[in-house]
């Protein structure tokens, strides 16, 4: 019993390692080339971004539509560390990994700090107005970065060392999933879901909604910052205009087409919709027309997204899992039920 | 001082474009409660169709366009874009009316992508920017060092006339009363025998037609048209609508002019600052007046 439970908990890790091994095998056999690997790395970054957006939009019920702003702060924050402060030519090969990790941490912290400062005054705003402020925030960050000369202004930063490989992306996607899943089912996550479902009722139950919203926003910004840092070290060239409103709306599309409020949905949405435009490349300029049509059709006929609210077994927590240690018997209903009409 | 007035005139002309576009955002938001991200693309459709209409008219007469031809072109472009707006609503937004607002928002992003990329993929339109024909006569007037062109005067005049007509329709006619009723309470309006579908279609028609006219005016001052022009103009007009208090028609006009004027003044200092200023003004106003300048804050009932 105990063994099987422990085995169950490391099963996702084994699965992930097997998946990575499979991809490497395909690559060595020549079936998957560097182009495929590159798309997979972008998809990984997008999965992290979508999960981060899911925390705010899907689980806390707030509308952030300027998430690319946090991503750009993380990308610039970490790229400044690895490119301008500790130049790649100076760093010995053995120090590359610690510097890389440090830069990701800095990127995440910068984004989280700004997320906190932005969240403080604005999270009192309701619904659509908050959405608009986050949109404005994203555009201000972009225009602001275009003004700063030492980091290349509108031309962007070139020569960011490409430290991030597929293994790093896999690791960070797994870590993000682990943390997001666990926080969603913690006290914080339950408060967020309560706020999403009914803010007034949550307040009445003693939940300080503004405080929990700020925590959600800051946590989400941190993930977005780390994802941005990874992105910078994948493409080795970042530019303020990469992180425009177009990027933010792409992320929203990943989230809602995949199914918001579902971790599986974020993974499927980001993975599928990152690869779809690439797979449609043979259509040339009709590619984005088809993409747009697919998106509208998915939204019209499958309002809960592609996954329809389904959650993979290892991402799901039932009441049984929570109360088992306390020796109580509770029916095995999922903790997180999405009502009809919820996003 | 002369520079100040000169900039003010540029600000007013840009502001009138924003205001016309913001009216569509605010009307759709007021009546359906959704942010129509595809609204900016109606501007592009208006400008692009004007280019083709002008080409067709010039082929037949081969001379410069006469006043009657220009009016016909503008009317055809406005009505055509209005009908496209109605079509978009009927196909993409109507089935989503009772769904969560975010679903409609994402659909709007999809519609916007479609409206931009469909003309781009068509071989006779394509991605390249094209020049915009001169619709209005170009006469420069000099008022104490401040230059005003006749194009500026005509477009300012026309946009103010359009706004006055809209204000009159919404506030003084039975149709406007129905629109206001739907925006206040859809179910109660239905019980009073108002045909909600017709009113919503009409709102989209008016909004898209106004966007089309703003596209024609914008392209008359900055004579270049491409399929992506609607997206960032749309974003800014949306900001203008929120600034004035979304759902309020006077607010959209006021917000449009505030945004246009502040943007021109900031651009005269630095072009990136010009881009930022709208968003900064927005955040500042929302921090002190969370429902916009003229918006009313609704009390939440349990």
Verbal overview:
The complex is a heterodimer of chains A (343) and B (302). Chain A folds into two domains: 1-32; 33-326, ABC transporter involved in vitamin B12 uptake, BtuC, CATH 1.10.3470. In chain A, 68% of the residues lie in helices and 1% in strands. Chain A contains 13 helices and two strands. Chain A has helices at residues 2-29, 34-59, 68-85, 96-122, 127-145, 166-184, 187-197, 199-204, 209-235, 245-258, 263-279, 287-301, 319-323, and strands at 157-158, 237-238. Chain A has a two-stranded antiparallel ribbon with strand order 1-2. Mean pLDDT of chain A is 83; it is low at 327-333 and 337-343. Chain B is mainly α and 302 residues long. Chain B has one domain: ABC transporter involved in vitamin B12 uptake, BtuC. At the A-B interface, helix 5, helix 10 and helix 12 of A face helix 4, helix 9 and helix 11 of B.
- What's the SSE pattern of chain A? HHHHHEHHHHEHHHH
CATH topology call of the largest domain in chain A: ABC transporter involved in vitamin B12 uptake, BtuC
How many individual domains of chain A?
2
* Shape designation of chain A: globular
DSSP strand tally of chain B: 4
* Helix content class of chain B: over 70%
CATH class of chain B: Mainly Alpha
The parts of chain A where pLDDT drops under 50 for at least 5 residues are 327-333, 337-343
Q: Treating each run of at least 4 consecutive H or I residues as one helix, how many helices of chain A?
A: 13
Which architecture of the largest domain in chain A does the CATH hierarchy give at level 2? Orthogonal Bundle
Q: Within the CATH hierarchy, at the fold level, what is the topology of chain B?
A: ABC transporter involved in vitamin B12 uptake, BtuC
Oligomer: heterodimer
Total number of β-strand segments of chain A?
2
């Amino acid at each position: 019993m105990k063994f099987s439970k422990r085995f169950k908990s490391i099963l996702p890790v084994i699965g992930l390692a097997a998946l990575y091994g499979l991809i490497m095998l395909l690559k060595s056999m020549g079936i998957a080339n560097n182009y495929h690997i590159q798309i997979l790395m972008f998809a990984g970054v997008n999965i992290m971004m979508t999960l981060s957006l899911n925390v705010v939009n899907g689980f806390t019920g707030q509308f952030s539509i300027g998430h690319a702003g946090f991503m750009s702060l993380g990308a610039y924050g970490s790229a400044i560390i690895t490119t301008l402060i500790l130049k790649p030519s100076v760093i010995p090969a053995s120090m590359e990994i610690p510097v890389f990790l440090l830069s990701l941490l800095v990127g995440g912290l910068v984004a989280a700090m700004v997320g906190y400062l932005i969240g403080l005054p604005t999270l009192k705003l309701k619904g659509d107005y908050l959405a608009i402020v986050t949109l404005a925030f994203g555009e201000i960050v972009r225009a602001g970065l275009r003004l700063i000369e030492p980091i290349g202004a509108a031309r962007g930063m070139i020569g960011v060392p490409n430290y991030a490989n597929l293994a790093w992306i896999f690791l960070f996607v797994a870590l993000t999933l682990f943390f997001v899943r666990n926080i969603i089912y913690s006290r914080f996550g339950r408060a967020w879901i309560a706020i999403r479902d009914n803010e007034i009722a949550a307040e009445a139950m003693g939940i300080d909604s503004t405080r929990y919203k700020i925590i959600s926003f800051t946590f989400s910004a941190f993930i977005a910052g780390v994802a941005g840092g990874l992105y910078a070290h994948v493409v080795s060239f970042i530019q303020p205009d990469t992180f425009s409103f177009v990027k933010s709306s792409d992320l929203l599309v990943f989230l809602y087409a995949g199914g918001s409020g579902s971790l599986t949905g974020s993974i499927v949405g980001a993975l599928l919709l990152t690869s779809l435009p690439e797979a449609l490349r043979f259509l040339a300029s009709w590619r984005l027309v088809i993409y747009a049509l697919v998106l509208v059709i998915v939204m019209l006929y499958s309002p809960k997204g592609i996954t329809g609210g389904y959650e993979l077994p290892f991402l799901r927590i039932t009441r049984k899992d929570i109360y088992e240690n306390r020796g109580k018997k509770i029916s095995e209903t999922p903790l997180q039920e999405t009502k009809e009409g919820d996003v | 001082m002369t520079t100040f007035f000169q900039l003010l005139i540029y600000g007013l002309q840009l502001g009138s474009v924003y205001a016309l576009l913001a009216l569509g955002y605010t009307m759709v938001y007021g009546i359906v409660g959704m942010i129509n991200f595809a609204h900016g693309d109606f501007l592009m459709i208006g400008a692009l169709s004007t280019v083709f209409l002008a080409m067709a008219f010039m082929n037949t007469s081969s001379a410069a366009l006469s006043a009657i031809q220009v009016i016909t072109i503008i009317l055809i472009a406005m009505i055509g874009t209005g009908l496209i707006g109605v079509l978009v609503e009927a196909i993409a937004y109507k089935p989503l009316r009772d769904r969560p607002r975010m679903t409609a928002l994402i659909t709007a992003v999809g519609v916007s992508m479609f409206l931009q990329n469909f003309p781009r993929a068509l071989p006779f339109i394509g991605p390249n920017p094209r020049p915009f024909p001169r619709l209005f006569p170009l006469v420069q007037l000099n008022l104490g060092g401040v230059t005003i062109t006749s194009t500026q005067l005509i477009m300012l005049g026309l946009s103010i006339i359009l706004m006055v007509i809209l204000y009159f329709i919404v506030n003084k006619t039975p149709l406007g009363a129905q629109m206001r009723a739907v925006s206040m309470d859809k179910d109660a309006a239905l019980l009073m025998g108002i045909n909600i579908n017709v009113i919503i279609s009409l709102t989209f028609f008016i909004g898209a037609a106004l966007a089309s006219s703003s596209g024609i005016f914008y392209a008359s001052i900055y004579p270049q048209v491409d399929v992506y022009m609607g997206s960032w103009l749309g974003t800014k007009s949306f900001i203008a609508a929120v600034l004035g208090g979304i759902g309020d028609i006077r607010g959209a006009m006021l917000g449009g002019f505030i945004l246009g004027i502040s943007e021109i003044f900031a651009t005269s200092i630095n072009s990136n600052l010009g881009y930022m200023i709208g968003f900064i003004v927005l955040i500042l106003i929302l921090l002190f007046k969370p429902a916009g300048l003229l918006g009313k804050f609704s009390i939440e009932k349990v």
